[in-house]
Design a protein that fits this description.
With 103 residues, this protein is of the alpha+beta class. Helix 1 packs across helix 3. The protein is built from 3 helices and 6 strands. The strands form 2 sheets. It has a 3-stranded antiparallel beta sheet with strand order 1-2-3, covered by helices on one side. A 3-stranded antiparallel beta sheet has the order 4-6-5. The chain is globular and about 45 Å long. The longest helix has 16 residues. The chain starts with 12 loop residues before the first strand and ends with a strand. Helix content is 37%, strand content 21%.
């Protein structure tokens, strides 16, 4: 049985809070404050799941009344900026719970 090439390994994400930027290998991208908040929480969790509710609380406060779709928009934008150019998938949805960074 022949296997294909191994999937690309993504370099770690480095955050610069003073510039609202994320760097991954040769790629540096500007982030919105909301995107930075989401990515910072995921990086800080070191591969553990960050629940949707926790991300919502970080973005909109304890009484933030936003739909899951609003969070998905931020995650989708992060994937376009950080994953697509390097052909990797870093932010993984965990069904019914939230998101985590891939191993």
């Amino acid at each position: 049985m022949t296997t294909g090439p191994a999937p690309p390994v993504a370099p770690p994400v480095e955050l610069d809070a003073s510039r609202l930027e994320a760097t991954r290998g040769p790629l540096t991208v500007s982030l919105t404050p909301s995107q930075f908040t989401v990515l910072s929480a995921l990086v800080g969790a070191r591969g553990a799941v960050v629940r949707r509710e926790e991300l919502g609380h970080l973005l909109w406060g304890p009484s933030g009344d936003r739909s899951d779709n609003a969070l998905e928009v931020h995650v989708s934008a992060l994937r376009r900026k950080l994953d697509d150019p390097l052909h990797v998938r870093t932010i993984v949805a965990v069904y019914g719970l939230g998101y985590r960074l891939a191993d």
